[in-house]
Amino acid sequence: MSKTKVGIINVTGYAGVELARLLYQHPEVELASVTGRSAAGQRLGEVFPHLASLDLTIKAELSDVDLVFSAMPHRESAKEVIPFLNRGTRVVDISADFRLKDTAEYWHWYGFTHPAPQLLEQAVYGLTELYRSQVTYAQLVANPGCYPTGAILALAPVVKTGLIEPDIIIDSKSGVSGAGRTLTAQTHYSEANEDATAYALDGHRHLPEIIQELKLLSPEQLPSVTFVPHLIPMTRGILTTGYAPLASGTISIDKKGEEELRQLYRDFYKDEPFVKVVDFSPHTKHTQGNNLCLIHPTIDYRTGNLIVISCIDNLVKGAAGQAIQNMNLMLGLPEATGLQALSIYP
Ligand SMILES: NC(=O)c1ccc[n+]([C@@H]2O[C@H](COP(=O)([O-])OP(=O)(O)OC[C@H]3O[C@@H](n4cnc5c(N)ncnc54)[C@H](OP(=O)(O)O)[C@@H]3O)[C@@H](O)[C@H]2O)c1
User: Are 174 and 244 in a shared domain?
Assistant: First the structure.
């Protein structure tokens, strides 16, 4: 039987090139077409020598495929995928263009008027752990942002069960590839190396996405969220630490309560192929190159606060791997197909 043909719009960015690497190992689909503005006409292996085994020429336009991944920057992505959607092609969009349900948020956070507000209702937020059945039948999947993936997975079990007070602090540290391949002064080697900084203190673009999804998990108790992202000198990975007061009377603030808390997380994620609740403080290296999210929930006995730590690879579970997880569901394939690689160590 012939394989499903898929294509990547914008293979020349980090998310797009990681998709190409992962799709090469996928047994059920064929990467048939890729685009890239700055490299149109060149062989993929010339531009990215680590992909030399992929026999493809980068084009200016995507050829006809059964499913399209867009790894375009926000604002540009919607324009690219709308014609495919109009032709009935299924799309996984890795950009932010279809993640938010409220059109006004696009103006506020991204500075543009959304070109197709009607598609925001139709788009399914592609966090498979929360929206599996909707993803299966979706024509358009909005792949979650990298920070929201780590933060929402870390907090969903306690937000949904009302185990915490709705006063949440999310502290995330990202490797520099999270900022993309386009060079800026902040991501220049001599600026980012041996440096660490908090940024977007007046509000990061991923904040409305995190709030939107946590609110949907707990509509009766709207969470207040403080989110502070940090840039740290590593290539890949996001380490997120979430803090919130445990709601009084829900769980004992001791070892027994902590074991109950961990069991609640294990039960919540018991059938999830890519979320592992672990008994140790995870490192970003434990998820480097694979599609896992590791989560370690604990209790601070002195303050009665929940402390929950999560780790992902921003380019895999935070982008390309999660996009393939969504594609697998959309094509009726086992969810973990092509995504079982272990992480790289050391
Ligand atoms: N990096 C991550 O960890 C991550 C995680 C989740 C989601 N995402 C999302 O994935 C998308 C791609 O991100 P990325 O990190 O891969 O970005 P990136 O590495 O910075 O890639 C952006 C590429 O897009 C192309 N580009 C820029 N402006 C363009 C335009 N106006 N028209 C056409 N092409 C344009 C450029 O390629 P040319 O030089 O070939 O024009 C550039 O190399 C973004 O929407 C981002 O938010 C990224």
Answer: yes
pLDDT of 10-44, one tens digit each?
A: 999 999 999 999 999 999 999 999 999 999 999 99
Whether residue 94 has its Cβ less than 6 Å from ligand 1 = yes
| Residue in 8, 19, 35, 37 to alter for ligand 1 test, most ligand atoms within 8 A of Cβ | 37
Q: Give rounded-to-5 percent helix, strand, coil for the chain.
A: 35, 20, 40
Please state the pTM of the whole predicted model.
0.97
**Nearest CA, atom 1, ligand 1:** 178
DSSP 314: T
Residue whose Cα lies nearest atom 17 of ligand 1: it is 180
Selecting among 34, 146, 239, 320, the annotated active-site residue is 146
Burial classification of residue 333, based on how many CB atoms lie within 10 Å of its CB (0-12 exposed, 13-18 middle, 19 or more buried): middle
Expressed as residue numbers, the domain containing 213 is 147-314
If asked whether residues 164 and 291 sit together in one domain, one would say yes
Instruction: Say if ligand 1 is within 6 A of residue 76 CB.
Output: yes
CA 336 to chain centroid? 16
Considering the domain boundaries, does residue 77 fall inside one?
yes
